[in-house]
């Protein structure tokens, strides 16, 4: 299972909304939306990702948005 697919699956388990995508430089970017505890658990999981994944660095920043996501998907 690829990193994006595993991220979608884990986000669904955590009840997190938003998206995940691959960037041209090989990094993965995600937007996470939900209660702080659910987002925090998702960020903790992203620190190591799925089995066999290589995660070098995870950074995050909080931003306010008026957009509401109704699901989590790979884009």
Characterization of the model:
With 75 residues, this protein is of the alpha+beta class. It has a single domain (3-74), classed as Alpha-Beta Plaits (2-Layer Sandwich), CATH 3.30.70. The protein has 2 helices and 3 strands, in the order H-E-E-H-E. Strands 2-1-3 form a 3-stranded mixed beta sheet, with helices on one face. Strand 1 (17-22) and strand 2 form a beta hairpin. Helix 1 (3-14) runs antiparallel to helix 2. The mean pLDDT is 93.
**How many β strands by DSSP?**
3
Order of helices and strands: HEEHE
Shape: globular
Low-confidence stretches: none
Strands in their spatial order, largest beta sheet: 2-1-3
CATH topology: Alpha-Beta Plaits
| Structural class computed from helices and strand pairing | alpha+beta
- Ends apart, CA distance between termini: 16 Å
The main β sheet shows up as: 3 strands, mixed
Number of domains: 1
Radius of gyration: 12 Å
Strand content: 15-25%
Query: Which architecture per CATH?
Result: 2-Layer Sandwich
Q: Into which percent range does the helicity of residues fall?
A: 25-40%
**Average pLDDT score:** 93
Number of helical elements: 2
**CATH class (first level) name:** Alpha Beta
Concise synopsis of the structure shown:
With 75 residues, this protein is of the alpha+beta class. The chain contains two helices and three strands, in the order αββαβ. A three-stranded mixed β-sheet has the order 2-1-3, with helices on one face.
């Amino acid at each position: 299972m690829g990193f994006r697919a595993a991220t979608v699956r884990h986000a669904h388990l955590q009840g997190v909304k938003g998206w995940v995508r691959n960037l041209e430089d090989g990094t993965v970017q995600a937007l996470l939306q939900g209660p702080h505890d659910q987002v925090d658990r998702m960020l903790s999981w992203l620190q190591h990702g799925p089995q066999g994944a290589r995660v070098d660095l995870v950074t995050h920043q909080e931003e306010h948005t008026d957009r509401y996501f109704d699901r989590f998907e790979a884009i």
